[in-house]
Amino acid sequence: MFGESKYEVLMQLPEYLRPKTILVPLPVTADDVMEKIRLAGLDFPLIFKPDYGERGFMVKRILSNNDVTRYLAKIKSSFLIQELIDLPVECGVFFTRLPNEGKGRVTSVVLKEMLAVVGNGTATLQELILARDRAKLQWVLLKEAHQNRLEEIIKTGESVELNSIGNHCLGTKFLNGNHLISATMSESFDRISKQMGEFYFGRFDLRCASLEDLCKGNVKILEVNGCGAEPAHIYQPGFSLWKAYKVLFTHWNNLYQISQQNRKRGIPVTSFREGRRIYKEYRLAMKTNR
């Protein structure tokens, strides 16, 4: 539900499905980090993210040595260095399989529209940001990220991506992509899920080159989120509240059925004491990073 290592979960996937990723425990210096990047054969730009985190917190695109130094000044827990996957389609695919079933199915697809503004030839980047409600809410972060361009007049028709991290808390628009669900897509993600051992329920956050590649499972998976993840297509603007409740009730019932079947199979459950310990460690990590 929470407190799982993103790195440990991601490493359950075969190498061809995931970005090159390094786990960096603390304490560490900027020189140490640069050496790890060099030895891994990586180069800027990169993605840095906490090993324990949620909703895009402390996920940053790192462009230079100076960015590394700034990140280390803020992060207070182990983090990941991840190869930047600059493919055009970013989305989340929720997969569900009951343990007593031979095959699973895709139950949700969310497409992500990155936060951006379009120039009109007269307004500065700052003016464009403040004129768009979704962007204005992110002003504190955006004025720092784009400080060198705020007074630049953006050409007519030019699109400027303001945030490359696909999280709705950072301004990304989530769109319902369930019309893309097909037997082929379910077969593709069933095949992927079975390469992770006892995996029955979770969302693959990924990038791919096209919707056709998405359907075929030709993807790069950035993260795998388990029972704490949501069928995020319900966050499309205008999505019916009552319909969202129905989706969530079905979602939670699937989770319950999986847990009951696994318990009957003899898979041990987490004790209250262990769960409390995990939660305390997770809350401490989140608190110290803020």
Folded structure, characterized:
The chain is built from ten helices and eleven strands. The chain has helices spanning 6-10, 30-39, 65-74, 125-131, 133-136, 139-145, 183-193, 211-216, 241-264, 272-289, and strands at 21-24, 46-50, 60-62, 79-83, 89-96, 105-113, 116-118, 159-161, 173-176, 201-208, 220-225. The strands form three sheets. It has a five-stranded antiparallel β-sheet. Strands 1-4-2-3 form a four-stranded antiparallel β-sheet, covered by helices on one side. The protein has three domains: 20-83, 2-Layer Sandwich (Dna Ligase, domain 1); 89-113 and 172-264, D-amino Acid Aminotransferase, Chain A, domain 1 (2-Layer Sandwich); 116-163, no CATH class. The chain is 35% helix and 20% strand. It is globular, with a radius of gyration of 20 Å.
What distance lies between the first and last C-alpha atoms, to the nearest angstrom?
21 Å
Shape: globular
Helix proportion range: 25-40%
Q: Tell me the CATH topology of the largest domain.
A: D-amino Acid Aminotransferase, Chain A, domain 1
Largest pleated sheet: 5 strands, antiparallel
Assign the CATH architecture of the largest domain. 2-Layer Sandwich
Given the structure, what is the number of helices?
10
What integer value in Å does the Rg equal? 20 Å
Overall domain count: 3
The tally of strands reads: 11
CATH class of the largest domain: Alpha Beta
User: What is the beta-strand fraction?
Assistant: 15-25%
The SS-based structural class is alpha+beta
Question: Largest sheet, order of strands side by side?
Answer: 9-6-5-10-11
Q: If you average the pLDDT, what whole number results?
A: 92
Encode the helix/strand succession as letters: HEHEEHEEEEHHHEEHEHEHH
